[in-house]
């Protein structure tokens, strides 16, 4: 039984990339949903889903597997606490700090944010927390405020006594109603055109571990929504495997590297950093672009002199940079095949351009050519072993292939590369 029609519907409506979690796992969930709905034909089931919101919600509930717990990764919540302390929210006349958690899953993340704010000394009226998720069932669990052992995986658990009531009968813990009432839950789809379209931007947006499950086109839509939802001086927090996506879309790291927090770049004020391997032979930095932006490291072209000796040499460098910039602009405009052609022309002239190979990998990735993208990212790392974006992109590819240990090794290298860049 082929499930192509249903998989296409999942990809179109919620941006779900079946291959990100493995087609077998998704297939089992879809088949179960079909059986429960009384269908054996995927085409007929897909047609029914289009006109039946309840059936669609049941399917989404079956394929979206919540994997979250309270204070998952400490650093992002410490960042939120510090933001509360420095936002001057001590009084009813102050502007409330606006926070969004999307996807919020079963609620552990937005509730952790509330507890972080309160623990930092913020008054209840000094901040608001909105939370959205595509899964109706996950939202119902979140709003119930009842949690069991799998939601408490951190070691400290300092928050259980002040903010929870223990339910002895079934071993569950019930969140105090005063905390539950501080989160505004709603069902929503980040890649939908009308998602939170009439709300003001947020000071802090948590969107962790969603982008890795979206196909390339949906990631573009999601990042466009996030740029709209994060205020000009706001902070975006992503998952540890998603940093490369933020940098491609005009965000720069902020705060401790373990928080994976980002702010919007403004103009050319954000100076590029050189990795130690490229410092001697660097070329002029390319200006940042919102989408297919190369990394902050300058292009590595070992054969070129650091200071061109004559006008002809300068002209040649400008021509090569112009090709790369043109390829990037074409990618931003969605002209992927033409961008690919121009990028390859650049690499014919500068075969050792790490930035050229990185952009080529991003373009192949956007076209769904996963193996070619991975090959490009490996070439980048041959030329520049500390290229953080290539390390993170390749980690995603390894993870998609089921090589979790290999992916974690690449992420560890990326963290070391970022730590190195911040000390230089």
Number of strands: 10
Class derived from helix and strand content: alpha/beta
Give the strand line-up of the largest sheet.
6-2-1-7-8-10-9
Shape: globular
Indicate the percent of residues in helices: 40-55%
Named CATH architecture of the largest domain: 3-Layer(aba) Sandwich
CATH class placement of the largest domain: Alpha Beta
Number of domains: 3
Average pLDDT: 80
CA-CA gap between termini? 56 Å
CATH superfamily of the largest domain: Vaccinia Virus protein VP39
Order of helices and strands: HHHHHHEHEHEHEEHEEHEHEEHHHHHH
Enter the CATH topology name of the largest domain.
Answer: Rossmann fold
| H/I helix tally | 18
Query: Mind describing the biggest β-sheet?
Result: 7 strands, mixed
Question: How would you explain this protein's 3D organization?
Answer:
This protein is an alpha/beta fold and 424 residues long. The chain folds into 3 domains: 4-63; 74-264, Rossmann fold, CATH 3.40.50.150; 311-423, Tetratricopeptide repeat domain (Serine Threonine Protein Phosphatase 5, Tetratricopeptide repeat), CATH 1.25.40.10. It has 18 helices and 10 strands. It has helices spanning 4-14, 18-21, 23-37, 42-51, 53-63, 74-86, 108-119, 136-144, 160-163, 177-180, 216-229, 243-248, 311-332, 336-349, 354-366, 370-383, 388-400, 404-423; strands at 97-101, 127-133, 146-147, 164-167, 172-175, 183-187, 202-207, 230-238, 251-254, 261-264. The strands form 2 sheets. The chain has a 7-stranded mixed beta sheet. A 3-stranded antiparallel beta sheet has the order 3-5-4. β1, α7 (108-119) and β2 form a beta-alpha-beta unit. α3 (23-37) runs antiparallel to α5 and α14 (336-349) runs antiparallel to α15. It starts with a helix and ends with a helix. Residues 89-93 and 267-320 have low confidence and may be disordered.
